Amino acid sequence: MLVHSRPARRALHILFLVLFLPVFALPLLVIVAASFASSWSGALPSGATLAHYQDIAHGEALHALLTSVLTALAASLAALTAGTWAALAAEKLGRRTRRLLDALFLLPVAVPSVVVGLSLLVAFSRPPFLLNGTPQIVILAHTVLVTAFAYQSVTAALTRLDPAYEQSAAGLGARPAYVLWRVKLPLLLPSLTAAAGLCFALSMGELSATMMLYPPDWLPLPVQIFAATDRGALFAGAALAVTLMTATLLVLFGVSLIRTKASYR
Fold first, then answer.
1. C-alpha Rg value of the chain to the nearest Å
2. Is residue 11 part of a domain?
3. What is the reported pTM?
4. Residue 166 domain-assigned?
5. Which tens digits make up the pLDDT trace of 248-262?
6. What was the pLDDT predicted at 162?
7. DSSP code at position 106
8. Are 243 and 59 in contact (CB under 8 A)?
9. How far apart are CA 116 and CA 137, in angstroms?
10. Which of 88, 143, 189, 253 is most deeply buried (CB count within 10 A of its CB)?
11. Residue 66 contacts by C-beta under 8 Å, 6 or more apart in sequence?
12. What's the gap between Cα 86 and its chain centre?
């Protein structure tokens, strides 16, 4: 730690807690408390109940959660594949071409996600690429929105990768494909798993582009949360939000275990 004085470290810890609790922790605690409430007229919720979670267990929320998870998994896998491929290809390009490729991947992040949704809606509403009204267009939108994060993560990892491993394998007669699969990608595995986790989390919470594209039979959970709060069912929406958050954290925890093993390896 940069601060060696014990009183200074304590002051920094207190400052961190003062900033962290109101900005990050308190809103999440409010959502959790609201999910168990039937009313909230004072400073604290009243009328503790499990009815909202019982409705989730017997309603369409589980199907919406499964839809969100499948969408996030497919989009994360596609984004990780495209981002890794592009990052490996950009490593051999010149500086100007690499900057152009960086700008191309960052463009969907630089514009509002609703613009991405509208552009895909217009582009794939006519043959021969007719995807409007299908789950594939939702997965495609999520992939476009999160690929930039996978690309940037792998690009940053490649800049820190020691070229001696690749050069040693090539000097021993290994073919480029063998070096890629048995040397380079295993060394990039911690960054790949981190990028996959980030893409999954972002896809699970994506709403703006999804609202423009989702078909009736492919309803992700964020859309259902928005619909519940829009009609005034705030406590039911809070329970759905806690369910979405819990599912996302469980998947991220599993990814962190893979990343830890890869880092140790």
1. 22
2. no
3. 0.85
4. yes
5. 999 998 888 876 655
6. 75
7. H
8. no
9. 11
10. 143
11. none
12. 19
